[in-house]
Write a structure and sequence with these properties.
Blueprint (H helix, E strand, L loop, with lengths): L1 H24 L12 E2 L3 E8 L7 E6 L6 E8 L7 E5 L2 E3 L1 E7 L4 E8 L10 E11 L2 E12 L2 E11 L3 E4 L5 E9 L4 E5 L3 E4 L4 E5 L2 E5 L6 E5 L16 E6 L6 E6 L3 E4 L4 E4 L1 E4 L5 E3 L9 E9 L4 E18 L4 E14 L2 E4 L11 E4 L1 E3 L5 E3 L5 E4 L2 E4 L10 E4 L8 E4 L2 E2 L10 E2 L2 E2 L5 E3 L4 E4 L38
Parallel strand pairs: 2-10, 11-13, 12-14, 13-15, 13-16, 14-17, 15-18, 16-21, 17-22, 18-23, 21-24, 22-25, 23-25, 24-26, 25-26, 26-27, 26-28, 27-29, 27-32, 28-33, 29-34, 32-35, 33-36, 35-37, 36-38
Antiparallel strand pairs: 1-3, 3-8, 4-7, 4-9, 5-6, 5-8, 9-10, 19-20, 30-31, 39-40
Length: 494
């Protein structure tokens, strides 16, 4: 047994020595002076970045596609400590990294961010730098470029900020909103033509018994949208809108809930005017809550609301006047006019062809009641309301779930409203005094609903409106010729 053990040890040692000898004889592949690293990109580009606001993180990969280890002498930002850019190499942050190996077939991650410093420019400007890579006697560069944009900043994260009483926003620089900015009672905010208003997640404008004047023009609209300007966010809904956190106590401690409201929330106010605005990619576009009887809370003209995760226009006991309103493609409804109120709408288009998931609400809904805490129905009247030359339609019209126009009323006979010369999708009768010259269950001739082109493609009699508002101009500033919806027929879908 002892001899066997000694023999086994000898054999094992011989194998180890032989293996070591074989390994030592295997020739390592040498790096040629011509061998090069490869990169996932030679330029890292950041779309418009607001000054003082950090960018998203971009990634560049460095590959060793050779059969030998590549030694990297140095990776550094050319601008060093003064650079607007920040890099991380395999998770380590810094401006300069030295002496590490990249094994055969392996790769290295570079994570890049930028914060652009403010300057005196009003137009976008380029902020540049380089990542320099030194190895194998070679010096290579990855170019970094970002469009910087100076801006006016309003509000603060998770805060309600009161604006100056008679504040005016001009279009020389964009306006970036954080949190909730409030227009107090008897005060007003004027937003001039051509302004671009970018709102952070949870941000919005609260008109609290004040007034909002949006004074856009054709070709110089006032735009409200989220503050993420990367291409992947161009058509992403739900990026902004007022969010209010509140807590409800329980035996296990307080529970935190988030209450969402319109990105533009008009509360107990009269006299606000929005003209030639584009409102897109938020939660709820405009919300108008209970008002008195002294005029309209909101006059809404020549405006587009598009791609809201919730509702385009939401009224609660509101008084709203609208002409040439285009509200389209929202996750819930294009318009929800609830708990009574007064609504006068001419040549408006409410068209819902939402393709972002299952939609459970109609394009347009009218309601005049709510249930109190005891589940009793409380009616608030609809009075002096009319909808003329309007379109209420969508992609649910071919299904049986519900019509694209829903009128859900209590005490129907005593409500003062009229739909006249409208094209609709409605599941009930249109033969009483609330309906006049209605086209029902016949699709409008939109050019391309999924590309947000709601111009009229066909000169059809079903699209002709009634004899109202002679000489009114449509959303393109063309004379309507008594057409339904916000666009007159041009025959041009371009």
């Amino acid at each position: 047994m002892k001899v066997f053990y000694s023999l086994g040890v000898s054999i094992i040692l011989g194998i180890i020595l032989l293996g070591g000898s074989m390994t030592s004889c295997k020739k390592q592949k040498e790096i040629s002076p011509d061998d090069r690293l490869t990169y996932s990109t030679d330029t890292v580009f950041f779309d418009t970045v607001f000054t003082s606001v950090g960018s998203v993180t971009q990634v560049c990969k460095i590959y060793n596609r050779h059969d030998a280890t590549m030694h990297i002498d140095q990776i550094q930002l050319q601008g060093g400590q003064t650079s607007m850019y920040r890099i991380a190499v395999d998770g380590d942050n810094g401006t300069r990294f030295e002496n590490f190996d990249l094994f055969p077939g392996d790769s290295l991650y570079l994570f890049i961010e930028v914060t652009v410093d403010p300057n005196d420019e009003t137009f976008p400007f380029i902020a540049e730098d380089k990542i320099e890579v030194s190895y194998n006697g070679t010096h290579e560069s990855i170019y970094l470029a970002a469009w910087g944009q100076n801006a006016y900043f309003h509000g603060g994260p998770d805060a309600i900020t009161t604006l100056d009483c008679h504040e005016v926003w001009n279009n020389d620089k964009p306006h970036v909103v954080y949190g909730i900015i409030e227009i107090e009672p008897n005060c007003d905010l004027t937003i001039n033509a051509g302004c671009k208003v970018y709102l952070h997640k949870g941000a919005g404008i609260l008109v609290n018994e004040g007034k909002l004047f949006v004074q856009g023009q054709k070709g110089s609209e006032v735009v409200f949208q989220g503050d993420r300007l990367e291409s992947e966010y161009q058509d992403t809904p739900g990026q902004w809108g007022i969010e209010l956190d509140f807590q409800i106590g329980s035996n296990q401690g307080p529970d935190i809930y988030t209450l969402t409201r319109g990105g533009i929330w008009i509360y107990k106010s009269t006299g606000s005017v929005i003209d030639y605005a584009i409102i897109k990619n938020g939660n709820t576009g405009i919300q108008v809550d209970t008002t008195g009887t002294n005029g309209f809370a909101l006059t809404l003209t020549n405006t587009k609301i598009n791609n809201m995760a919730g509702v385009g226009l939401w009224g609660q006991g509101a008084h709203i006047q609208a002409v040439n309103l285009l509200s389209t493609n929202c996750g819930e409804g294009c318009a929800y006019l609830s708990i009574g109120g007064k609504y006068v709408m001419d040549n408006c288009t409410f068209a819902n062809y939402w393709d972002g998931g299952v939609r459970t609400a109609p394009a347009f809904a009218l309601n005049n009641y709510y249930k109190d805490i005891n589940q009793n129905i409380q009616v608030r009247p609809i009075y002096q309301s009319r909808f003329q030359n309007c379109i209420m339609y969508g992609n649910n019209a071919t299904l049986t779930d519900f019509g694209e126009l829903v009128v859900d009323l209590a005490d129907v006979d005593n409500q003062d409203y009229l739909f006249s010369y409208c094209l609709i999708d409605y599941e009930e009768s249109t033969n009483d005094l609330h309906w006049d010259n209605i086209i029902n269950h016949q699709a409008p001739f939109f050019c391309d609903v999924y590309e947000n082109n709601f111009h009229i493609s066909s000169n059809s009699s079903r699209m002709l409106g009634g004899p109202f508002n002679s000489g009114i101009l449509d959303l393109d500033q063309q004379e309507t010729g008594f057409w339904k919806g916000c666009y007159d027929y041009t025959g041009n879908c371009q």
